[in-house]
């Protein structure tokens, strides 16, 4: 999860006053072809509010009209940023025609389009693109794009060539990119990489917590022995990740989760413990993503009243849970008495993230949840609040 500049989801007050029915899904044909074309052109405007208004207009257009227009824009619009945003918005329509556009974008000169295409094929398995992904690992020079490529490859870990390409990256290169590799291998439970990640976990340093979390996701008796050893030797800031790793294996969560929670609270209440707070928030998020509702609720409990600098790492952790496990986040939000505050914390997360594709998937899933929920239900209220506050 990469951190970017703030302000990613802020719109004007006037937009917030739009009727909810128009925000979610207006009658087909309400957006005209001329309005759709104008909105697509405005996806590249410098003014942020204008761009976001344009995105909302595109989402409201009838799919039969919007999808072909977005395909054309992604392929040939004169503005490179419009091409990028068109491809992102296209992904939210879940149309099978997007597949060919995404494959074509794998070789595009625009690095933003390549990033979207890599992420698409992470979430839409297609063995025919594996050779291109492996080849791209040798030729992809953009630091902006390599994390998405890495995660895409990790999704195809059953392929021997993918394993051969990724395994060396656990132990070499810049720490940031190694962390991305390690996290991705953990997320995809790459048991074949366990020994390499184990070696990283045993070295005291900035990657120890990433490795501990990944090992917990992968599991195995040898993993439990490693994590038990790290409980005795790892630094204070690394202990929350170790505890989370053990819990992710299904071992004694009743003892380990309270320790992580206490670490989050400790870092929130005291100045000078930002590193511990970041590590503990990430650890608690990893537990929450694994479907532990109490962990997600605690992040909200602590994060809603928090102020910066403590608020930012907690918000990012909440954002990770929302993106990686939306059904869980929806269930947790349904129980909140402070729903508006909880969703504002999520908005803070999206303000800091540069995960446009993942956010578009989130938006699409929330809109679907809105229409699936019964009138007056808690789920419908949560979806309404998300749509209104995040302005999509």
Radius of gyration: 21 Å
Number of discrete helical segments = 24
Average pLDDT number = 91
Strand percent estimate: under 5%
Fraction of helical residues: 55-70%
Characterize the biggest β-sheet: none
Count every beta strand, where a strand is a DSSP E run of 2 or more residues: 0
Separation, N- and C-terminal Cα atoms:
21 Å
Give helix and strand order, one letter per element, not per position.
HHHHHHHHHHHHHHHHHHHHHHHH
Oligomer: single chain
Low-confidence stretches: 1-29
Shape: globular
Structural class: mainly alpha
Describe the protein:
This protein is an all-alpha fold. It has a domain at 260-392. 69% of the residues lie in helices and 0% in strands. It has helices spanning 13-16, 20-24, 33-41, 48-60, 63-76, 80-91, 98-105, 111-123, 130-139, 146-154, 160-166, 175-187, 194-201, 208-218, 221-233, 239-248, 253-269, 274-289, 293-303, 311-324, 326-334, 339-352, 356-372, 378-390. The model is unreliable at 1-29 (pLDDT under 50).
SSE inventory with pairings:
Blueprint: H1 13-16, H2 20-24, H3 33-41, H4 48-60, H5 63-76, H6 80-91, H7 98-105, H8 111-123, H9 130-139, H10 146-154, H11 160-166, H12 175-187, H13 194-201, H14 208-218, H15 221-233, H16 239-248, H17 253-269, H18 274-289, H19 293-303, H20 311-324, H21 326-334, H22 339-352, H23 356-372, H24 378-390
Helix pairs in contact: 3-4, 3-5, 5-6, 6-8, 7-8, 8-10, 9-10, 10-12, 12-14, 13-14, 14-16, 15-16, 16-17, 16-18, 17-18, 17-19, 18-19, 18-20, 19-20, 19-21, 20-21, 20-22, 21-24, 22-24, 23-24
